[in-house]
Amino acid sequence: MESSKPACHRSFLLLRNLFYVGITYALTASIIHLFQNGYIHDRLHPPSDLIAKPTPTPTLGVISRLRPESLVIPQDDFLGKRPHADTYANFTRLIEVCRGSLTGLEKMRNVYDCLKYLAGRESEYYFIPTTNVPSKLSKDYPEIDKAQKPNNSSIGPCPGPIIPYHTYWTGPATWRVEFFIKGYLHTQNLACSRLYLWLDTDAHPFAVPDMMRDPIFAKFLLLVERGDIILKEWKFPSRIPLPKSPENVEPRYIDATPDPVTGVTVIGDGVIREADGSEWVVLTPRQLTFLPVAVSDAVRFIVLHLWGGLYCDMDVLMLRDMRPILLPPEHAFAERWAVHTHPGDYNTAVMSLSANSSLSSYLLRGGVRMGINFHPRIIGRMAWKDGRNEEFAMFETGLFDPIWGEFNWGREGRCSIPCLRDYNAAFMGEVGYVKNSGEWESWDREQLKEILPREKREFVLRGLPRLEEREKYDISLDLYPPNNRTMANFFRGAYTYHIHNQWKKHPQPNSWLDVVMKAHDGFLAKKRKNPYGEMWEGFEVGRYERFMEFENF
Ligand SMILES: *[C@@H]1O[C@H](CO)[C@@H](O)[C@H](O)[C@H]1NC(C)=O
Ligand SMILES: *[C@@H]1O[C@H](CO)[C@@H](O)[C@H](O)[C@H]1NC(C)=O
Ligand SMILES: *[C@@H]1O[C@H](CO)[C@@H](O)[C@H](O)[C@H]1NC(C)=O
Ligand SMILES: *[C@@H]1O[C@H](CO)[C@@H](O)[C@H](O)[C@H]1NC(C)=O
Ligand SMILES: *[C@@H]1O[C@H](CO)[C@@H](O)[C@H](O)[C@H]1NC(C)=O
């Protein structure tokens, strides 16, 4: 008797403590999640209108292999003909249309109008220059209509300068690396582009040979051979060359003289001139020992300084040919940080700089001087203070990350198409979610014709082999039934979509990302066209692996 009460009390205490631990854990996890992804995903209490209502039968009560790919016939060539290889985008126009004035920012929050303009009015912001036409700059360039298409053995010649695209990765390949690469192959002008995959070797010395043996990356080995993809070892350099310039000399070093032994002259903080006249940013041994956590923030500035072209984070999906925004001589740009109003608040997930330029040198030196701190908003504010942001165009989120302004700031105008309210939404294919998410709220055109009558959907899309099998697919039992999503309506007009991390998550069948994956695989299997109506000319590239958690064979 005596002991039962304390025992009871003890177990109460235990339960209470467990409860507190649970709460603390949930809170901490949410906070970490919030930092990583920018939104809270409450697993215990998802918004009730977003949960699939429990069906009486097992949720995956269908054989997923028999599921039709779509409820509609997608229009794959929705972007029309690819822009001519000499096309420039008019940066001034793009900024005015999607931002408004520099101080007023009247249009910054209206992504719908920005995308509508981008998708429909190319002729107003694309043009072919009349002087210094890129394809005429060298007599080695073939004529545009004579340039051979890529084939199995050759990527084909580019009638003009080839633009490098860079991305950075650490560790083995995942479906996200595949997604990035396939997005590139699906949309870019391949003969005129090269994809540099920078693999971190500071922490993983064998990153490049490991990648060459990686089972997921194996799909792309023939493209490494053909020259489309170039694997590069990333090692933090101890010194970085600067183009020789009077700008490199800081005022208080103006009278510096060469060291009599080495011939080296210190011409600025962390900047030297060698005896042969070359000028360098030099990192101290201390800086090299204590590399910042955010190495990738620095990689993009160093790589673009040395190589030029475009840098994209691996979580950026390319949706359109980016050449017209990379080709103009003055093409330095980055994105705005969400809808922050400060003119120095850049985001560098998508960024372009000219190699060895005054701007790239300036940004590089700034980041090194601040202790290898290349946080975009810190670098950006520095550039703004020094009056350098005029040279560094800031594009609005509509171009690269159309939903960034949606969920935590006041959007103005209509929601984009699709209307996704958080970064999780692109992964969702569950029937209840699709029905209740309101993702079509801005769609006011005719509905796409569904190829199956609503009453009878135990079908027949690709001539199923046997009658018994045909009867086994019942759309009403499918948790992830086919729907009317197509890539043509996935932020049409935007150059990229930014997934924002979420590296471990898999897209559900028939989610927007899954629809994009099917478009990639259909194209690379030579069954579907890309958005520019082109067929894949190379060898077949393996399909995505299926995510087993969604399968029911
Ligand atoms: C670019 O756009 C600006 C602003 O709309 C316009 O004034 C300028 O003429 C355009 N430039 C070209 C080359 O079309
Ligand atoms: C592939 O393209 C290259 C260069 O464009 C060309 O020289 C070669 O003959 C082509 N090969 C085949 C098999 O068509
Ligand atoms: C930039 O300068 C470095 C060193 O001078 C040189 O190796 C590199 O080729 C240059 N990059 C470009 C794209 O011109
Ligand atoms: C897709 O279907 C939804 C209803 O499920 C509808 O509201 C929407 O307009 C359709 N979208 C298109 C492009 O047909
Ligand atoms: C290209 O390679 C594929 C194998 O990946 C082969 O089926 C196809 O016939 C080849 N095409 C040409 C033109 O050689």
UniProtKB/TrEMBL annotation:
The keyword Transmembrane applies. The chain crosses the membrane at residues 12-35. The keyword Membrane applies. It holds the Pfam family Gly_transf_sug. GO terms for biological process: carbohydrate derivative metabolic process. Gene3D superfamilies: 3.90.550.20. Keywords: Membrane, Transmembrane, Transmembrane helix. Belongs to the glycosyltransferase 32 family. This is Glycosyltransferase family 32 protein.
